[in-house]
Every structure is written in C-alpha cells, then in structure tokens.
Amino acid sequence: MVTIRDVARHAQVSISTVSRVLNETDHAVSPETRKKVLQAIEELGFIPNAMARGLHHNKTKTIGLIIQDISNPYYPSIVRGVEDEAQELGYTVILANVYRSKERTAKYLNVFREKRVDGIIFTGGGVVKDAVEEKFFEQTSISTVVIGKPCNVKLPSIQINNVQSSREACEYLLKLGHRQIVTITGPAESTTTIDRLEGYQQALKRHGIEPEKRLIIQGNFEYNSGYKAVQEFPEIGRGKVTALFAQNDMMAIGAMKALQEKGLRVPEDIAIIGFDNIPLSSFVTPALSTVDVPVYEMGKTAMRMLADILNGHEVSRLVTLPTRLAIRQSC
Fold first, then answer.
1. How many angstroms separate the CA atoms of 311 and 306, rounded?
2. Residues 238, 241, 245, 249: what is their CA dihedral angle, to the nearest 10 degrees?
3. DSSP string computed for 64-120
C-alpha cells in the first residue's frame, strides 16, 4: 500500500508538505511544489485517508442514516433520495438498518459517534422516544434531522400530515357509501400509527359514525399482519364490513391475499385503500388505491436540510410535504 511517506520520497519533499497539499491548509505551498506532489500522487496511485483528512478539518463528510426496516419497500426510496442528494453535495452515507429495535438503534447511534459522522438522518420519528436515545440527542453535538414525527426530542423534521392524509382516504370510502370500515394499524407506540388512526376516527365522526374498537385491528406494518388480520376477522366482506383502510400498503397487500383465499372479491365485496404508494401497489391485481407519499423527495429534502445545518444556515424546524390520493381499482 502506498503511503504518504512514499509520496513525499517520490516528490522529493517533506511529509508535512504532502500533508499541506492534501489538506489544503493555510500554509503556503508554491505552485511548482504542489504540482510535483499531485503528480507523485497520480503516478503512485496514492489514495488519501479520508477519515484522517476529515479529522484534520473536523469534518468527515459522512452522514449516518438510520432506517427501520430495509425489507419494507417504503425505505429504499428514502435511502435513494438521501444518497442522491448526498452525492450531489459531496457526502458519503453510512446506512444502519435497525429493524425497529431500540437496542440496535442505540448501538448504531454510538457507532456513528465513534465514526465521527458529521450528521444523522433518522427515519421513523416515533422511535426517538427511548430514554437512551433522548439522552444521546441531548448530549451529542451531532446535527440530526428526522424523517417522521419526533417524540419528546426537539429536532428538525421532514413530515407528511398523517392525520389529514388518512382522513381523506377514509372519507373517500365513506363517499362511496361504505359505513363499516375496518382499519389495520401499525405498532401501537408508533407516532405514524397514532396519527393515521386519528385521521380514520375523524373521518367517521364527521359522517356521524362512532368508531368501534372491534373494527380497529393492530398490525405491525408487515405483509403477514395484514394477512392475519383478515384471516382472524370473520365479519369482513360479509355484508356488514365492506371496506378496509390499511395504514400501509404492505398490510393492504397482505389483506388482499387473505381476501382472495376466502373467495372474496376486491372491490365488489370489500373495498381497500392502503398508504405509501410503494412500487408494488400498482402491480398487484386489482391495482391498489393508496395515499401517495413523496418518499424519495422526503429523503432528498432531509439531506438538503442537514447539509444546510452543517453549513451554518438557518432552516425551518418543520417541513411538511403534500400527499395525494392515488385511486386505482381496489375501491
């Protein structure tokens, strides 16, 4: 491996001179000497240690990105948005997949601190409520942006209006004439779950319908929980319960599979709306109606916000991006 010592010997200069050229310090280096050093670097194929250079400038140009579940198609679009914007801005992204685990989250937060990342982007604001995480964000000087709704911690965030978006989805079902609407939620502690459930309940109340606990089924944002919810709910599609609002597309698609196995037709026997507009939602049969979330743009916006903070610019503490209903064939 070629070292800085080899470059100095090849260019016939001191190691400190090579270091000054690499780190672009305020110490004067003549144009002729700089040219010799850069030529030696090219001829020897020397690759500077980015971490060492970062520590010299107190910047590593790296960003830590925490996502909740890489198997959920919602998150890769966020990752792509963050990485595309980071590349444009000259940053490298270190990805941490925590599977909604508080223990893994705490571990990766410490790893990011050890790696001296310049900043952190945190997806799934509801996870930022554990005491260990709160202590981390209170004590660390690492700039952080949340994609989602932070709990208990005052951090800049990129959000959608989950209450309004889910209310609009359910109101669409109500306008179609449905009165018994079952909903499959995410984990109870999730701020996304809480807000989307609130939107569901608001829609019903606006139409003079009192929400019923039996029509609220807890899931976990995964395919199997949507499938299981339908399998274990005998009233669905039997004339009474005629519509289903799933708090994400994965659970909606799982529910559709279970309905098909029960011999029920979508939307003739039961109408379905999901949430997120993951790529698969338009390819299932029938194509899934859903709430279109600008996931890629959320990733890009979060990275831009974080870069602005790192560069000392004033930023809005909250950016809310719009959603829209994508009505297809399932309702």
1. 9
2. -10
3. EEEES-TTSTHHHHHHHHHHHHHHHHT-EEEEEE-TT-HHHHHHHHHHHHHTT-SEE
CA distance 226 to 233: 11
Sketch the domain layout of the chain as residue ranges.
Answer: 4-48, 62-160+295-323, 162-292
**Residue with structure tokens 């929980």?**
225
Question: What CATH code is assigned to 162-292?
Answer: 3.40.50.2300
Strands (E), the chain: 62-67, 92-97, 119-123, 143-147, 157-159, 181-185, 216-218, 243-246, 271-273, 290-292, 318-320, 324-326
Same topology, domains 4-48 and 162-292? Answer is no
Q: What is the rounded distance in angstroms from the CA atom of residue 319 to the CA atom of residue 331?
A: 31
What is the phi-psi region of residue 140: left when phi exceeds 0, alpha when psi lies from -120 to 50, beta otherwise?
beta
- Residue 171 CB coordination number (10 Å): 18
> pLDDT by residue for the chain (331 residues), tens digit each?
778 888 888 888 888 888 788 776 666 788 888 888 888 888 888 777 655 555 445 678 999 999 999 988 999 999 999 999 999 999 999 999 998 888 898 889 889 988 889 999 999 866 555 545 666 666 677 899 999 988 766 789 999 999 999 999 999 999 999 999 999 999 998 889 999 999 999 999 999 999 999 999 999 999 999 999 999 998 886 678 999 999 999 999 999 999 999 999 999 999 999 999 999 999 999 999 999 999 999 999 999 999 999 999 999 999 999 999 999 999 9
Domain spanning 4-48, CATH architecture: Orthogonal Bundle (1.10)
The CATH architecture assigned to 62-160+295-323 reads: 3-Layer(aba) Sandwich (3.40)
Do the strands 92-97 and 62-67 form a parallel or antiparallel pair, or are they unpaired? Answer: parallel
> Position 147: which residue type?
I
DSSP state of 14: -
Name the pTM for this structure: 0.82
